[in-house]
Amino acid sequence: MKTNKELKSLVQEKYGEIATQSKTVNAASCCGAGPVSGKVYNIMTENYGGMEGYLAEADLGLGCGLPTEFAKIQAGDTVIDLGSGAGNDAFIARHETGSGGKVIGIDFTPSMIQKARANAEKMGFNNVEFREGDLENIPVNDEVADVIVSNCVLNLVPDKRRVIAEIFRTLKPGGHFSISDIVLVGELPQALQKDAEMYAGCISGAMQKTDYLNALREAGFQNITIQKEKPVLLPDDILENYLSKEEIEAFAKREHGIFSITVYAEKPGVKKKIVLQDLTKEDVACCTPGSGCC
């Protein structure tokens, strides 16, 4: 059994390699890591093509859902994207929050940060920033975010309950998150559980679905909702790297499985809003377009 430090090093190394791979290779494997299937093009990822703000260069095919589609981002929001990769979800979030909002992407793989920053500079986005950091210690102050999004990343972090606590800390009262992740129902075969590449590929590091939802409740989140759920079917030409023919047949007949879920939850509290009637005449004048002071 690898230590948490060893698992983090493994993920960082793998995702450093993934940053230079093609989207085709990433989408035909488990989150870009491990063996590539020749039978299917897309194992986990979904099509972002129709979403406003989509930047093809930032889409490495590493996600397992479309959390920004369900995130209820409003104009002017501050959004944090955990495990931001090359910036795909961050740029879509930026479109939703507009020029008056802000997006902060967090990733602990230096090559991903470099790629994301290059994409942001290319597009001239001055309200999107990318910070290198560990999701178990998010490099953001308390109560900063209106919304947090993440796509297929929490399953890669050894101490998931610590990340959930950090999400709670960095959300404003009344803020919420929409996170796509991989969860399990039932146990994986031992060979899949133990393989390092399957950990980096989002599978063997996944939590049980019931444990995942319970961890959110225990952290203090409310109105927990599964916005979308779909099974993840691993092709035989990937499974045969780990299982015998008989084990693959048994795996196919199992009542349990691997699922991609998109989960929404809220931090208790009420968001603070600026109410115009509480402002002085001088304040209102200063906020009027053309006043020259905004």
Helix tally equals 12
| Helix percentage range | 25-40%
* Net shape: globular
Q: CATH homologous superfamily - what is it?
A: Vaccinia Virus protein VP39
Determine the strand fraction and express it as a percent band: 15-25%
Give me the CATH architecture, please.
3-Layer(aba) Sandwich
CATH top level is Alpha Beta
What is the straight-line distance between the termini? Answer: 57 Å
- How are helices and strands ordered from N to C? HHHEHEHEEHEHHEHEHHEH
Overall average residue pLDDT: 80
What's the total number of strands? 8
Summed up, the domain count is 1
Q: Uncertain runs with pLDDT below 50, 5 residues or more?
A: 274-294
- CATH topology, anyone? Rossmann fold
Summarize the main sheet.
8 strands, mixed
How large, in whole angstroms, is the Cα Rg?
Answer: 20 Å
Class from secondary-structure proportions = alpha/beta
Structure report:
With 294 residues, the chain is of the alpha/beta class. It has a single domain, classed as Vaccinia Virus protein VP39 (Rossmann fold, 3-Layer(aba) Sandwich), CATH 3.40.50. The protein contains twelve helices and eight strands. Strands 1, 2, 3, 4, 5, 6, 7 and 8 form an eight-stranded mixed β-sheet that branches. The longest helix has 15 residues, at 4-18.
Brief digest:
The protein is of the alpha/beta class and 294 residues long. The protein has helices at residues 4-18, 23-27, 67-70, 88-97, 110-123, 160-170, 190-194, 196-200, 209-219, 236-239, 245-252, 281-286; strands at residues 78-82, 102-107, 128-132, 145-151, 171-185, 207-208, 222-231, 257-266.
